[in-house]
Every structure is written in structure tokens, then in C-alpha cells.
């Protein structure tokens, strides 16, 4: 036995759009942005939004404190594109590869206050050598490891001071430290999220004090991840917070408890193209090329597989997920163990699929179809992909 929802007025508004296509709910996005800014305001720190999630000039202007920044990026290509649009205060928040230093210098020569990141002595020596070679002063943050998640120097390690000294003696500008509490993605309760935020803050401040005790001013203490940004209760000693996926949210963030399903601002519009009745499957024209291969919810209490399926108005069908993803085919099924009926979706029907990881899904598309009150009101381009 099958069931279906009443047609939504939104479906006729979406019908002219090509599928698969990326949809952006402007009201949800604006609400998400306002929520984080309101949370950080009484904590006395600024937001340096990470633009890697949206990769959009239109969205960046809604995120940044001013038209010129501050901003965070994850590629030099992003830095170059946003700089061309007038953004001048940029942190390139990935450890610098020596071969990329000339591009970083070129951006600074264009008047961009670009900061770079190192977390080992070899990188610091390469930065120092480039500064001596070109007679430039590259602002550099030292990445510290606040939770054992990825890159960075352990708090208390003498290497921190050695790197700062190497940078300064080479003519670079050791501006301070940065960290990313990626381990917060493993949190499963409010208490764990609050603890992760405090652990991140304490580690960052400890390292900044370590540098200051060695004679380095370290004016920048930069922390950030979407979970810790939302659950920080005290940011004493921190100068800025970085976060990115909060602008859209996604199923991973909902699974952690940072947002609800109703906060997720992007989805992929897809068309039903067939059925496999004996397998209780519905086929759509959005596979992993539209959704990405990200399976970030796989280790969460609720596995959303490749995405949660909604009707054209954005209302989730009960337990309908994208269970399998081929390059251009998505396979929709009822979640294992659920008794929910498979919706009656004829060929040509439209569905919206919420992503596991907003950054990865948005990266599969070249523009946003912007929705306001269920109507398409704009098409916002994403900056060119690449590095």
C-alpha cells in the first residue's frame, strides 16, 4: 500500500528548473546566520566566517561583518576569487604548501591582508625563506591541536616557540595561533558539545600564552567549528571564531544536535525517472555527482545514507532515504527497519533531498536556485571550483 502528499504550490514553481539542481531556502539561511551572530555577540568575539561552504559572493556579503571581511577560505582559488570581489581580510586556513607561497605573496601584493597557516618546522622554514627571498612579511598563524582530530602542535610542545622564532627571524609575521575542533563532530549531547567548546578555547589560550611568555605578541587567537561555535559558553582569551557549515546546516549537524532538520537550508531537486517495484525502490536522476559520496551520518545514531528525501515543499517523507547512489542514479528506499509506506511518486515527480554534508553537496553544483516563500527569486553563482 502506498501513500502520497497533496501537491504543494511549490511544485509548480520548481517544475521549470532542470534536475538535478541545488536549492537554497533564503529564509532558513538568514535565520541560521542570525542565530550564530546573536550567540557570539555577548561572548565578545568576532566571526570570521568560513566561505568554503557557500563559495558565493552573494552569501559572503550576508556572512561577513563588512564587505571586505573578515573571511576564512580553504583554497587559494577561493582567496583569489573573493579578493577579486573586494574581500581584503582573508585567512587561508589550510597548512601552506611551499609551492603555493608565490600565490600567497601575489595576493598580498594586490592589497589583500592574507594570513597563512603552518604547523611544522619545515613549513616555517619555507615561509621564512620566501620572506627573505622576496623581502616580504607574510602573516602566519601556527595551528595547534586542541582535540587530537587532525593537524596541529600539541599545547605545551616547545616546537610551538621554535616555529614562531623561525618565522620571525626569517622576516615573517607570527600573528598567533589557530585551531579547529573537528573532534566536536563526535559529540552526541549538549554537555559533550559544551565541553568540546571549552577544551578548544582552553587549548588555544594556553598556546597563545606560551608564545607570549616567549616574547611573541600573538594578537590572534582563532578557534572554530560549527558545533563549538554554537555551544561555547565562555570565549575569554579568544579573538575570533571561524565556522562555515552553519550557514546551511546539514544532516550531520542535525545528527549531532546542533540544528533541526527544519533548519537545513539547501537541498537537491531531483526528478523521479523509474521504479523497481520488486525491490521497493524509486529511481531519481540525482546520484553521487549531485549529492556527493559523503556518508557523514554513517556513524551517527540515525544513518541517513546519501540523503533524506522530502516532497517539493521541503517536508520529509517518513523514513524515505537515498539508500544507494550511482554516478547519475539515486535509489530511494524506506529506511531499513521502518514500517513506513513507500510514497506513490510517478515518473516525473519532483523530490528534494537533504544532504549529509552541505559543503560537499554544494560543491557538485555551479549555482544556487534561491527560494523565498517557496518561489524561485534568484540564481546565485558559486565561484569557480578548483584550487
TrEMBL record:
Keywords: Lyase. It comes from the Bacteria. InterPro entries: Ala_racemase_N, D-amino_acid_metab_enzyme, D-ser_dehydrat-like_dom, D-ser_dehydrat-like_sf, PLP-binding_barrel. It comes from Steroidobacter flavus. SUPFAM superfamilies: PLP-binding barrel. Residues 1-21 are annotated as: Disordered. Belongs to the DSD1 family. Residues 1-11 have a biased composition (Polar residues). The keyword Transport does not apply. Transmembrane segments: none annotated. Residues 265-372 form the D-serine dehydratase-like domain. This is DSD1 family PLP-dependent enzyme.
Amino acid at each position: 500500500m502506498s501513500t502520497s502528499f497533496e501537491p504543494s504550490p511549490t511544485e509548480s514553481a520548481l517544475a521549470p528548473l532542470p534536475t538535478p539542481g541545488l536549492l537554497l531556502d533564503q529564509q532558513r539561511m538568514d535565520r541560521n546566520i542570525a542565530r550564530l551572530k546573536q550567540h557570539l555577540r555577548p561572548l565578545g568575539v568576532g566571526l570570521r566566517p568560513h566561505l568554503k561552504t557557500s563559495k558565493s559572493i552573494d552569501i559572503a556579503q550576508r556572512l561577513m561583518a563588512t564587505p571586505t571581511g573578515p573571511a576564512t577560505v580553504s583554497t587559494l582559488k577561493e582567496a583569489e576569487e573573493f579578493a577579486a570581489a573586494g574581500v581584503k581580510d582573508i585567512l587561508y586556513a589550510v597548512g601552506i604548501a611551499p609551492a603555493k607561497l608565490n600565490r600567497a605573496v601575489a595576493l598580498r601584493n594586490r592589497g589583500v591582508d592574507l594570513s597563512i597557516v603552518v604547523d611544522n618546522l619545515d613549513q616555517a622554514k619555507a615561509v621564512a625563506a620566501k620572506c627573505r627571498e622576496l623581502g616580504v612579511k607574510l602573516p602566519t598563524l601556527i595551528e595547534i591541536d586542541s582535540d587530537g582530530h587532525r593537524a596541529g602542535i600539541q599545547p605545551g610542545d616547545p616546537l610551538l616557540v621554535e616555529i614562531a622564532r623561525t618565522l620571525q627571524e626569517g622576516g615573517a609575521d607570527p600573528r598567533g595561533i589557530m585551531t579547529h575542533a573537528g573532534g566536536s563532530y563526535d559529540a552526541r549531547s549538549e554537555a559533550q558539545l559544551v565541553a568540546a567548546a571549552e577544551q578548544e578555547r582552553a587549548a588555544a589560550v594556553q598556546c597563545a600564552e606560551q608564545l607570549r611568555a616567549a616574547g611573541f605578541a600573538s594578537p590572534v587567537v582563532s578557534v572554530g567549528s560549527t558545533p563549538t561555535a554554537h555551544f561555547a559558553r565562555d570565549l575569554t582569551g579568544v579573538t575570533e571564531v571561524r565556522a562555515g557549515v552553519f550557514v546551511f546546516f546539514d544532516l550531520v549537524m542535525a545528527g549531532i544536535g546542533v540544528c533541526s532538520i527544519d533548519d537545513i537550508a539547501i537541498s537537491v531537486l531531483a526528478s523521479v525517472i523509474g521504479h523497481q517495484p520488486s525491490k521497493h525502490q524509486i529511481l531519481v536522476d540525482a546520484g553521487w555527482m549531485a549529492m556527493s559520496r559523503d556518508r557523514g551520518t554513517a556513524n551517527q545514531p540515525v544513518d541517513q545514507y546519501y540523503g533524506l528525501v522530502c516532497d517539493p515543499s521541503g517536508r520529509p517523507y517518513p523514513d524515505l532515504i537515498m539508500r544507494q547512489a550511482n554516478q547519475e542514479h539515486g535509489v530511494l528506499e524506506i529506511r531499513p527497519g521502518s514500517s513506513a509506506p513507500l510514497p506513490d511518486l510517478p515518473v516525473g515527480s519532483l523530490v528534494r533531498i537533504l544532504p549529509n554534508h552541505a559543503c560537499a553537496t554544494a560543491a557538485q553544483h555551479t549555482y544556487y536556485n534561491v527560494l523565498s516563500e517557496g518561489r524561485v527569486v534568484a540564481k546565485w553563482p558559486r565561484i569557480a571550483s578548483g584550487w
